[in-house]
Design brief:
alpha/beta, Rossmann fold, 7 helices, about 10% strand
Length: about 230
């Protein structure tokens, strides 16, 4: 049962990682306020998954905000750029940030989460960033999260007055995909509700070939858990 004094904003994309984070927040007794974004991503089907996950955990509120990152572009997820397929994830190109990186996405999403947390007087934001994956996005590192958390407590009325000291929780940040799946399974998360593909078809079926799909397949195999994903 949720503790009425514990409120958290949880960034929920509908993918495997953010859904697992939602399960963790739920297990820790938080009253959960999920926040998702329609940011012109090609994977709008993930928002359907996010709604299913939010409903599964019977969260207090689930808000979906429109953020037009497609007008900025610069990513295979928001621009007319081909999504890479069938790459060798065991040998990523050193120091190369993938074209699936969306410029400043986590900074934008966390800023909205911060605003909502301040209104709710919530002292915690959960985000499913992970540094162990192949992708290597710059806004998934602990240094970044720590810097944003420090900024957040300087930039808000609740932080400056000391009414609320905000924490950004990243429970998956150092876990492998297999460890994440095992954790979610322990918490009875139904992974068939999730969608992590970068390039699903019109029916919401995962492509099975993008980096995210490959990571997911590998994770389920290493975790010894059946992958419930519907692939094209």
């Amino acid at each position: 049962m949720a503790n009425p004094d514990k409120k958290a904003v949880v960034l929920l994309s509908g993918g495997l990682d953010s859904s697992t984070v939602t399960a963790i927040a739920h297990s820790e007794g938080y009253k959960i306020y999920c926040l998702s974004f329609n940011y012109d991503q090609r994977n709008v089907a993930e928002l359907i998954a996010a709604k299913k996950v939010a409903s599964f955990f019977n969260v207090e509120q689930h808000s979906i905000l429109d953020v037009g990152l497609g007008k900025i572009g610069g990513s295979a997820l928001t621009d007319n750029i081909k999504v890479p397929k069938n790459q060798n994830l065991d040998h990523p190109i050193k120091n190369e940030i993938p074209i699936t990186y969306v410029p400043a996405r986590n900074t934008i999403f966390l800023s909205y989460a911060l605003a909502w947390a301040e209104v709710l007087e919530a002292d915690t934001i959960f985000i499913g960033v992970n540094v162990m994956d192949y992708s290597g996005y710059p806004d998934c590192r602990q240094e970044y999260i720590t810097a944003f958390e420090n900024m957040a407590n300087l930039a808000t009325k609740t932080g400056v007055t000391g009414k609320t000291i905000l924490k950004i929780k990243t429970p998956l940040i150092s876990l492998s995909k297999a460890q994440i799946i095992k954790k979610g399974t322990e918490l009875n998360l139904d992974y068939s509700l999730t969608l992590s593909c970068y390039d699903p078809d019109s029916e919401g079926r995962a492509c099975g070939e993008c980096d995210s799909c490959q990571q997911k397949k590998k994770g389920f195999k290493e975790a010894g858990v059946k992958d419930p994903t519907i692939y094209q």
